[in-house]
Amino acid sequence: MRLRILTLFLCLAILGACRAARADSAEFSGFAYFRADVTVRQDASLDVTEEMVVNHASSFYKYGFIRNLPISSVDRWDSRYAGEYKADNGVRVNILEVTEDGKPAKYDQGRGYGYAQLMIGENKIRLDSGEHRFTIHYTVDYAMDPGADRDTLYWNAIGHERNAPVAEAILAIHLPAGVPEGSVEAEPRVAGRGVSFPRRPETTLGRMEDSSGAIVYRATNVAPRQSLSLVVTWPAGYIHASKFGFSRREQWMFIAPTLVFLFYLIAWLRIGPEPKPGPVVARYDPPDGFSAAAVRYISAGTTDGRSFAAVIAQLAVRGCIRVEPLNGKYKLSRLMSDRATEMALASEERCILSLLFEDGPVIELNPALEQRNTAQNSRYVFHIHQELNKNMRMQYFTRHAGIIVLGVLATFLVALVLGATARGRDTSGSIFLTVWILFCGLTIGLLIELSLVNSWKTVVRTRSGWVKLIPGTAGMAVFMGMIGFILVKLASGISLSFSLSLLTLLLINLGWGPQLKRKTPLGREISDQIAGFRLFLEKVEQDQWDRVGLAERGSRDLDRYLPYAIALEVKEAWGDHLAQTFFATTVVAE
Q1: Does residue 454 or residue 575 have the better pLDDT?
Q2: Can you give the residue range of the structural domain that contains 446?
Q3: Are residue 52 and residue 104 in the same domain, yes or no?
């Protein structure tokens, strides 16, 4: 009987103590309980689960509950483990789940400087004075410090950005499987950042036993602006970070470029190779019915400033115009020619003849790199291309434009999906910048492929005219620099994987486009004839042309092969000078 009575009193005492403890906990203002479980994954990322019990939250959080994740340089302040201070230390998080009182909770994550801030619940609505339990589950990338000999994890569990005290804080670190227990070193600390907010006498810190093998430390009476941090090191070889700096959750972004590349590869395989070139046999005349501009259109696949120069030379040969060099410019005068002569001209030559003298019988062609000159000269090239394309499209070569259009549309579609689903420190404007980069990058890249590369090839071959290309090259370089700058910003604000995916999409489209162009059997046959005619011009006519000066060539009758020599890039003083003039002030059309 005495034993039963003693047991009853003991139970009542324990029950009373528990009720008192609960009452004390309920009366405590701040974090009554905080626990962070940090699991180190083999890919060097972290899996973090935080459990918090908050009492009288409205005393500290006037606009809803705010959790500042301990990932900024303010919380990772110890340079021995986290490096020197940076506005963006590169640490990235991915929120997986947030609950409040056991139910899924609404949340918003900050951007830029406030990226670490997690606003839980309805914005600008205070929590009541009761007890609230929050759980946050997220992953962390780039917080580890893999070393050559030992790997290091520095984690500042509660973070300093709070004004609420913490009655009990627990930090548990779960290491990868296989790490020997005796090789692990742990350095706990509970206090404020640096020497500010030092540890108070009533604050306790001690290690707890854990059956799972985790490294667990517990602190009590943690003051505001103080935190429980832990540095853990262990032998290298148990985690394997990506050599290219990509996290596992970002690698899926490269699926989009891979799919676009496979689309082009399959299309390229289905198209098959173009007919092989035949033997080159010298011939003394150009292919029947082909003008100088048409010969260039088929042989080089382009319409450019050299095509324009060849048309002008052809008009001079036919007696329709007179060309006179004049202080770096060209004076063109309309000559009286009969109707039969003009009807014998190719369609693009008749078109340019009409355009040149629509305002009067004499004009000057100015190579100066001014907007008016560039626009006017580009207009001539555009009309030449339009006429050639209308008469020869699909007969001599195919570009498979439909496939390229589908590839570009697919590129924009997958890039928009990437932009819409982007997650990072600052995703503002990700969709707009994605579209801008692709549009400008494809446009500038196309101009470089079709115009600038060919122009510099001519400059290298002739060893002259490079001064005229500097402004255009500089302008394109500025645009490419802007694209590179924005890609760097996207890499910082979102991720390196996102930025590289966009760059890869650009390069895939620009690289595959020219590879889909094919000559038809008829185009191959005409190309072989053009190659034979070019061989004749190089072997027979070049010496004669080289002996004729610029002024003499401009004032005498030009022989009928001169336009073709210009179009086929056979070295000739007058033609090279005129062609280089318009290379720098015209836009290639293909």
Answers
A1: 454
A2: 248-259+400-514
A3: yes
